[in-house]
């Protein structure tokens, strides 16, 4: 026999389950750990390239910890701001805030604590310049890009890419305390890499962006236009990628690696234009991640195993 309170009991249980405290995995997911790990690789390369001697453990550990905390805070803020559109997109619908596993107040506290802790570590144990640069990047990505640029212009990735390109400069300034040409070239490489990297994903997810009214380039200008721009930015990236050799930061090992990796990127960019296979955009996106990681690892290998013995004037 049915009892009158069965329905109410089930509803109460459902509400109770939905309001359970989030797990540490939910907060970790909000930090976009895979993205942050790639950023930390870039900041580590910036640190190690900034000095001929081995970088101190304090800078390596506390510097990268502070950078990771600030980057994770900005990523978590992006989760909060984008929760409504995340819930409507297949790629992001399972995110903790979009699913309600992390409530807005909890997320806001997490953003504030991690960001403040990261800035404090950088200011007290590294140097004020690195702390200010990280704060500027946090504002740029977490606020300017997430709230305004992403919804304002199809050039959102190009303009906002500057904020995401800064990690190697953070690493550089953590060691030197100054903004130098070598660190800026590393930023330039990631800045040129960002549009072809993200536009490839945007083509693969074009209809999802269209559904949530985010003006990504494939939505506003079409796939052919976007693919042509991916090719053009890939050419710019290849030029930027050889600059460390041109200015004497690296040797022939890095140059050959940059040319080979760049040829692979060019192959995928051309394949996007001439191939009709639907998996090519996402495969290009995946290669772009491998490209950046391999390029920066080759810089490290060149720095330690093929030291530069001359300077190009």
Write the layout of secondary structure elements.
Layout: H1 6-18, H2 24-30, H3 33-49, H4 57-81, H5 83-86, H6 96-99, H7 104-126, H8 128-152, H9 156-164, H10 167-176, H11 181-204, H12 206-211, H13 217-221, H14 223-241, H15 243-246, H16 252-274, H17 280-305
Helix pairs in contact: 2-4, 3-4, 3-10, 3-17, 4-7, 4-8, 4-10, 7-8, 8-9, 8-10, 9-11, 10-11, 11-14, 11-17, 14-16, 16-17
Shape: flat
The CATH superfamily of the largest domain is identified as UbiA prenyltransferase
What profile does the largest beta sheet have?
Answer: none
Q: What is the CATH topology descriptor of the largest domain?
A: Tetracycline Repressor, domain 2
- The fraction of residues in strands falls at under 5%
CATH class of the largest domain: Mainly Alpha
Extract low-pLDDT stretches: 1-18
- In N-to-C order, the SSE pattern is HHHHHHHHHHHHHHHHH
DSSP helical segment count:
17
- The computed structural class is mainly alpha
Gyration radius (Cα, Å) is 22 Å
Number of separate domains: 2
Number of strands: 0
Mean pLDDT: 90
Distance between the termini: 90 Å
Per CATH, the architecture of the largest domain is Orthogonal Bundle
- Measured as a percent range, the helix fraction is over 70%
Explain the overall architecture:
With 313 residues, the protein is mainly alpha-helical. It folds into two domains: 16-179, Tetracycline Repressor, domain 2 (Orthogonal Bundle), CATH 1.10.357.140; 180-313. It has helices at residues 6-18, 24-30, 33-49, 57-81, 83-86, 96-99, 104-126, 128-152, 156-164, 167-176, 181-204, 206-211, 217-221, 223-241, 243-246, 252-274, 280-305. The longest helix is centred in the last third of the chain and has 26 residues, at 280-305. The relative contact order is 0.10.
């Amino acid at each position: 026999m049915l009892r009158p309170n069965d329905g109410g009991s089930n509803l109460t249980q459902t509400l109770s389950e939905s309001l359970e405290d989030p797990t540490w995995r939910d907060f970790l997911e909000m930090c976009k750990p895979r993205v942050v790990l790639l950023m930390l690789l870039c900041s580590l390369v910036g640190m190690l390239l900034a000095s001929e001697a081995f970088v101190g453990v304090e800078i390596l550990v506390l510097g990268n910890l502070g950078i990771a905390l600030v980057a994770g805070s900005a990523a978590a803020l992006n989760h909060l701001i984008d929760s409504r559109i995340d819930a409507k997109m297949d790629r992001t619908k399972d995110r903790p805030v979009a699913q309600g596993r992390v409530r807005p107040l909890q997320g806001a506290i997490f953003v504030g604590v991690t960001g403040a802790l990261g800035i404090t570590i950088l200011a007290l144990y590294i140097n004020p310049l690195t702390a200010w640069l990280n704060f500027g990047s946090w504002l740029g990505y977490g606020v300017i890009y997430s709230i305004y640029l992403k919804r304002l212009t199809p050039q959102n990735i190009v303009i906002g890419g500057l904020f995401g390109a800064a990690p190697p400069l953070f690493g550089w300034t953590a060691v030197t305390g100054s903004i130098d040409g070598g660190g800026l070239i590393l930023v330039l490489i990631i800045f040129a890499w960002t549009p072809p990297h993200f536009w490839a994903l945007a083509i693969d997810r074009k209809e999802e962006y269209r559904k949530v009214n985010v003006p990504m380039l494939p939505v506003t200008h079409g796939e052919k236009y976007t693919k042509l721009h991916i090719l053009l930015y890939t050419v710019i990236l290849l030029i930027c990628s050889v600059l460390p050799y041109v200015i004497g930061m690296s040797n022939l090992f890095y140059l050959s690696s940059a040319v080979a990796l760049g040829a692979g990127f060019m192959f995928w960019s051309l394949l996007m234009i001439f191939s009709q296979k639907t998996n090519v955009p996402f495969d290009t996106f995946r290669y772009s991640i491998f490209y950046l990681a391999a390029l920066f690892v080759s810089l490290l290998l060149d720095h330690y195993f093929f030291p530069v013995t001359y300077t190009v004037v």
